[in-house]
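Sequence, C-alpha cells quoted for completeness.
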Amino acid sequence: MTEVYIYIFLTIVVLFVYLYPKNPLTPALVSLKQFFTSWKMILHFVAIAFILFLNKIELTIEEKMRLNYDLTPLFHRWEGDIVYTIQNFFHNDLLTNVVVYFYVVVFTSLIIASFLVYLNEKDNKLFYTFCYAIMLNYGIAIPFYLFFPINEVWAHEPAGVQFLMLDVFPTFETEYRALSGLNNCFPSLHTSISVTLSLIALKSNNFRWKTIVLISAGIIIFSIFYLGIHWITDMIGGVLLAFFASYTAQRIADGRFKLGKSKTEQYAQNNRSDETVEQ
C-alpha cells in the first residue's frame, strides 16, 4: 500500500495547488494549526477514527458470525446483466487506469482534503457537518454489511463480469481487501461518501472545490460499475444513505451552532438591558 499512500499524498498536494495557486502550503499549515489547537475538532476526528476502526474489525466479526445465507442471487435476478453491459460497452485500457486511480486514490484524497479545506476556510459549520456525515455513513452501513451479505458483481459467477481492478492494481486482494469485504456491497460506501462530499461541498463558497468534488463523485460512481464491483441496487442504497447522512449531519451541526448563537445573543441582550437600566 506504500505506493497508494504516495499517490494519495501527491494528489492532495495537486489539489491544494489548484485550489490555492498563490501559496498552497500556507492553507495546509493553517488547517493543521487550527485543528491541533481545538480539542473539540480533535475529539471529532477521534470519533471518526473509531468508526473506521469498527468498519475494519467488521470483517472479523462477520467471520465469527458464519451466516449461511447469500442475497447476491436476489440482486442478480432483479437487475440482470446491467453491470456486465456497462463494463463491456466502455471497456478500454486507458479508461481502466483512470477509473482505478479515482476509485482507490482520489476517493481517499477527497476525504482527507475535505478536512483541510473546511479548516483552512474557517468554515467550522461545514467541518462538523462533514464529520457527522462520515460517522453516519459508516455507522449505518456496518450493520448492513454484517447481516445482508451481498457479493461483488464480478464474484457472482452468472454475471460474467471481470474484476478490472486487478489489471492496474494486481495486489488489490492482498493489500486492500482487508479494508473492504467481498460481500460488503450494500449500500455502496464509495457512492454514499462521494455523494455526501458533493452535497456538503455545494454549500462551500469555494467554486473550484465544488467543481472538483462533483466531477470526481461522478467518475467514482461510474467506477463501481465499470470495475465490476457494485450492483445498481448498491448505488441506489448509497445515494439514499448519502442524502440521509448529509441532511441529518447538517441538522446536528445547525443545532450546535444555533445553540452557540443563541447564547451570544442572550449575552448581548443582557448587556443592552443593563445599559437601559443604568440610563
